Give the backbone structure.
Amino acid sequence: MLDGSGLGGQFSRVVEVIASLEGRVVVTGIGKSGHIGRKIQATLSSTGTPALFVHPVEASHGDLGMLARGDAVLILSNSGESAELADMVAHSLRFGLPLIAVTARPESSLGRAADHVLLLPAVPEACPVGLAPTTSSLMQLSLGDALAIALMERRGFTAGDFGVFHPGGRLGARLRTVRELMRTGNALPFVTPEASLRDAIVEMTRKALGCVGVVGEDGQLSGIITDGDLRGALDRDLNATPAGAVMNRAPLTVASDILAAEALRLMNERDKPITSLFVLTPERQVVGVVHVHDLLRAGVA
């Protein structure tokens, strides 16, 4: 476990330094620290903090050109004495790039050169001979995740923002909004409050969504009629009974910017799950309908 007292105020200062960057976080490390560094770079990039990984040996053979003014350099080294890191340290100092060290030895060459030191506790490695990077790697990884989370909170990074960087797979589907999946235009089932139940049946059958919206002249949703509502009204005169007399005046609706996964949850959490949701503006203007099949085809479930 990371010792919070060892981090002190440096952690907060590093968060502010990274949050205020005009450029990127350049992460580097050698050996196991390099592997951890790649994961930290990936987590930062996917959570709203632009970052890249530069291998320290390749940096000495031209990849130092990947660093630019406005960047900060995050170097991971438990000992702080890895010779392969020397050129990255020197380049950071030469061009005035903020240098952040993650190390267990603040008195090391890396620790002394750094502008900010995130100090790892002096805890023995977990391996039987006490040499293989195990405990130290876990602490580096935990610290990197903590940085990413703190930066997300600092920036107000939302699930919607997360979805921008994760469009693929099931996770990407769950992070899509209703606006991306809803049906619009001529696909929407509408009747007026004065329309007959027969007209409502025809419209419901034509649009095949299992419901029809009852919309006034102002374009606002007055209510909806489901196929269940129609079954309950079959004893009425279908030509003489207006849709407004049968409709549900308080249907469940959603806004277009909610996540598709949230819409699916709303559909399923009711005592009698529903299959369609009308999508409204704050003024109750109808802009779309989302059907459970649309959500399932998109991989939301």
In short: The chain has 14 helices and eleven strands.
